[in-house]
């Protein structure tokens, strides 16, 4: 009889699992958890582990899997607002995974369902005295945050998953490309692609075309339409090159070209073409250094340079080029500190600094430089506390502090 392998997570996944587990462990009251994901393997692993924990406590994890969009309103919503008495007594937690429900009908139903929960926030809290875990599509996170402000404000924990479910492999090899789910474009998203096609046929490669291509590209990448995204990104790069030839090296024309190079790089990365992505990101980085030389150290030019350094650093890390990644991330960190010095402690400047600290600490740990990694992670804890003080209702910044503390445990 064949045996299935137990679910496996890489170190980043294990840390994320630990954070989720700590938030839910022995929780005997209402707690709202959001997990945004494009990684079904990670979600399945989390669900199995939670189910095992609650099985041992006899409470059981209530796992719901609606078959149709209508089930969200006809079956699931009434159960949440009026749960059976025995479930209330046992304080059974709910796991509702809507991340894999695709298609226009499911999208509308999912958003309407969340809107209803938002409207019924207080009845929901009174009815459920146990955790409610909502697993939702990663690409819908910005829209959902705006759609359900009341629910979002009372959440206890939120997380975006990464590609954490593969077994640890040889970091000297480029990471294997995950199978990608291609989602049907909504009518609105389709209209953005059609507008790009219309302007392309007219051979109107002005900045209006550049912006139309950007809108179409964003929806294609988020929907897994990577082959179409490649065509759009390449047309955008061609548009940017043509305008650069016509106008010369202005700040706008150079920046648009660098953005288009990053976009082509992102499509290459989505297809697993890491060396190609790295070359494109490096070309964009060189342009952003030229822009900085032209206009000086403005917050925008510095941040653009920092983003490009991170792009090249991330591909170097993926390809196992750790020393190269370290040099790039450390330069990006130094720039983040300069931006902070220019504009002060804003949520944006502090958040960017925390990203840089995460990057340099992670690579230092990989290179065995534990003292160095520890110093970066300790600073990350301090930055997270400042962020949480500035925006105390923003649960993500509280989570950020827990994340850096877990990083410190790794290098203790």
Q: Which helices and strands occur, and which strands form pairs?
A:
Layout: H1 11-24, E1 31-37, H2 40-56, E2 62-64, H3 71-81, H4 85-90, E3 94-97, H5 104-119, H6 121-127, E4 131-137, H7 141-147, H8 149-153, E5 157-160, H9 187-201, H10 207-222, H11 226-247, H12 251-270, H13 274-295, H14 299-318, H15 322-343, H16 347-366, H17 370-390, H18 395-410
Parallel strand pairs: 1-4, 1-5, 2-3, 3-4
Polypeptide structure, described:
Helix content is 67%, strand content 6%. The protein has 412 residues and is of the alpha/beta class. The chain has three domains: 150 residues, Rossmann fold (3-Layer(aba) Sandwich); 114 residues, Tetratricopeptide repeat domain (Serine Threonine Protein Phosphatase 5, Tetratricopeptide repeat, Alpha Horseshoe); 116 residues, Serine Threonine Protein Phosphatase 5, Tetratricopeptide repeat, CATH 1.25.40.10. It has a five-stranded parallel beta sheet. The longest helix is centred in the middle third of the chain and has 22 residues. The chain is globular.
